[in-house]
């Protein structure tokens, strides 16, 4: 099996070297660069399976670069884990809203980092179920890892894809945030329940661009329902 490839974007030499050692020990291949300009050059040559991206970088910041990547049709599906010293909850939420699939605060242990990388890669796996699912003009093609709304292709992050896939296969039922975490992120994940709200908001925004935002319904005091019925 080919080793999975990680792009590391971190401007501090010591941390960049440490990340390389952790990735090597976990049997990943990797490229490591100090800024987003060099990271963009790497993406011109390869498509990594995941990006470890520092929040604060010289030139274009990591969070701004993540936002740009997620708008790129050819690169928007690459999962991103933000690395930062920022520990405040609002900073975490902002990072997720700008396109990150997960968030890890420095300092962190090698075991936690590897666990998070593997969890995100599992959620973004291209080796999903065959066939396609369709509901309310939304079609998800597992064979091609592709989504269309009203026959127009849309770009989703790996987490948004998994969340939409779960909703499409479990319509008209109400799920709590905890249940969605178990089903979409996996049991034992490090993700906080509020993260569900962030990804729901991002997915709802994408659906709103195609007149489908009302399909994700908030059930006050419990969670969310996905339905064609108002």
Automatic annotation (TrEMBL):
Gene source species: Methylomagnum ishizawai
Superkingdom as given in the UniProt entry: Bacteria
Name the UniProt record assigns to this protein: Phosphate regulon transcriptional regulatory protein PhoB
DNA-binding region: 130-228
Gene3D superfamilies, alphabetized: 3.40.50.2300, 6.10.250.690, Winged helix-like DNA-binding domain superfamily/Winged helix DNA-binding domain
GO terms for MF: phosphorelay response regulator activity; transcription cis-regulatory region binding
Residue ranges of every copy of the OmpR/PhoB-type domain listed in the record: 130-228
Locations listed in the record: Cytoplasm
Keywords: Activator, Cytoplasm, DNA-binding, Phosphate transport, Phosphoprotein, Transcription, Transcription regulation, Transport, Two-component regulatory system
Response regulatory domain: residues covered: 5-121
One Gene Ontology term, aspect cellular component: cytosol
Any Pfam family matching the protein: Response_reg
SMART domains: REC, Trans_reg_C
Any GO BP: phosphate ion transport
């Amino acid at each position: 099996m080919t080793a999975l490839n990680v792009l590391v974007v971190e401007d501090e030499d010591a941390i960049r070297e440490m990340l390389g050692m952790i990735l090597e020990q976990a049997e990943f291949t990797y490229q490591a660069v100090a800024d987003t300009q060099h990271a963009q050059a790497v993406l011109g040559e390869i498509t990594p399976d995941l990006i470890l991206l520092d929040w604060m970088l010289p030139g274009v910041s990591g969070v701004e670069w993540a936002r740009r990547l997620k708008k790129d049709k050819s690169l928007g599906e690459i999962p991103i884990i933000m690395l930062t010293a920022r520990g405040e909850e609002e900073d975490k939420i902002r990072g997720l809203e700008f396109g990150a699939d997960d968030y890890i605060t420095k300092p962190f242990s090698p075991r936690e980092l590897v666990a998070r990388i593997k969890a995100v890669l599992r959620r973004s796996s291209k080796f999903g179920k065959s066939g396609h699912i369709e509901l309310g003009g939304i079609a998800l093609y597992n064979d091609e890892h592709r989504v269309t709304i009203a026959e127009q292709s849309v770009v989703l992050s790996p987490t948004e894809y998994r969340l939409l896939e779960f909703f499409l296969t479990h319509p008209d039922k109400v799920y709590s945030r905890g249940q969605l975490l178990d089903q979409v992120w996996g049991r034992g994940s490090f993700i906080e329940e509020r993260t569900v709200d962030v990804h729901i908001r991002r997915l709802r925004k994408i659906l709103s661009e195609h007149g489908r935002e009302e399909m994700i319904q908030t059930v006050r005091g419990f969670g969310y329902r996905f339905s064609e019925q108002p």
